[in-house]
Amino acid sequence: MPSTDLLRSAQAYWDASAETYEQDFSGTLIGRSRRHAVWRELDRTFRPGQRILELNCGTGIDAVHFAERGVHVVACDISPRMIELSRERVNAAQVQDKVDLRILPTENIGSLFSERPFDGVFSNFSGLNCVENLSEVARNLAPLLKPGAPAVLCMMGRFVPWEIAWFLAHGDPQSALRRLRRGNAASFEADRVKVQCPSVEEVSDLLAPEFELKNWQGVGVVVPPSYMEHWARRFARVTKLLARMDLVLGRMPVLRAMGDCVLMNFQRAGEE
Fold it and tell me: Which of 130, 149, 174, 257 fits 268 for a cystine, CB–CB 3.0-4.6 Å?
C-alpha cells in the first residue's frame, strides 16, 4: 500500500491534469482515434444490463459511452477534480441512473468488497501505469469480480518507434528511451507521479494467478503519439487512414508490440 504522501501527490497531479485533459488528449484527433479503437474491443466484451467497474475513469468519457449502451458502471478515480468533471458529463448525458462515481485510488479498490460481484472491469490508457504494485491490485480486485469475468486493461506500450524517432529528432535521447528503462521503470513527472512501463509479459506475470491473459493488441502502432497533434491536424486525411490501418496492424504479431498503448484482455481465474 503506497504512503499517504504518495497518494496525495498523485491526487494533486491528476487534479491539475484534469484541467487540460480535453485539450491535451481526449479532445484531440489522435486521442479520439485511440479511444474509438479501444471502444471497438470494449463493446464486444461488455453487454447491456451488466454492472462493471472502471478504474481511473478520468473525465467520464468511457463511463458515459457504456451507460448510453445500457451498461451500469461504478467509475473510480483518485482525483476529486476528475470526478467533478465526470459528474458534469454524466449529468449532461442524463445517464445518472447508470453511472456511480467514486473518488477512490486504484490501490484502495478492495474497499468495494461489500458491493461485489461485478461482471467485469476495465481501465483505459495510462492509469494503471501509475500504480506501483499491480500484484496487490490484482489480489484486491479479483474477489470483486465474478469467476471468469473479463478485465480489459489499456496501458502504455514499452517500445514505441514513433516516440523514439520523435525525441531523437528533437535531440532528446533520454526521453526517446524512457520507456525502455529496466529496474525502477520509466519515470515521467518524477516529482509528482511515477510512471512504470512493464511489458505485456511482465503485466501478465504481475496479475497472475488471479488473472489469465487471453489476448492483446497494440493501439497507436502507426497513428502518432498525442504530442504530434499539430501534424495530425495538418494531415487529417493521412491520420484517419493510419487510424484505419491501426485496427489491422495492431493485431499482427511483432507490430502489435510497437503500439503507444497495449490493450490486454484478461480473465478472472475460476469457472464462470
Answer: 149
Task: Please list, in sequence order, all residues whose beta carbon lies within 8 angstroms of the beta carbon of residue 231, skipping any fewer than 6 positions away.
Answer: 224
Bridge partners for 81 per DSSP:
none
Count CA within 13 A, CB hemisphere, residue 259.
32
Q: Which three cell numbers stand for residue 90?
A: 454524466
Percent of the chain at pLDDT exceeding 90: 69
Helix residue spans in 51-183 (DSSP H): 61-68, 80-93, 134-141, 161-169, 173-176
Least confident of 40-54, 96-110, 167-181, 205-219: 167-181
CATH number at 218 reads 3.40.50.150
Q: Specify the number of domains making up the chain.
A: 1
Report residue 187's pLDDT band, with 50, 70 and 90 as the boundaries: very low
Which pTM value belongs to this model?
0.91
Residue with cell 445500457: 70
Which domain does 169 fall in, by range?
A: 4-268
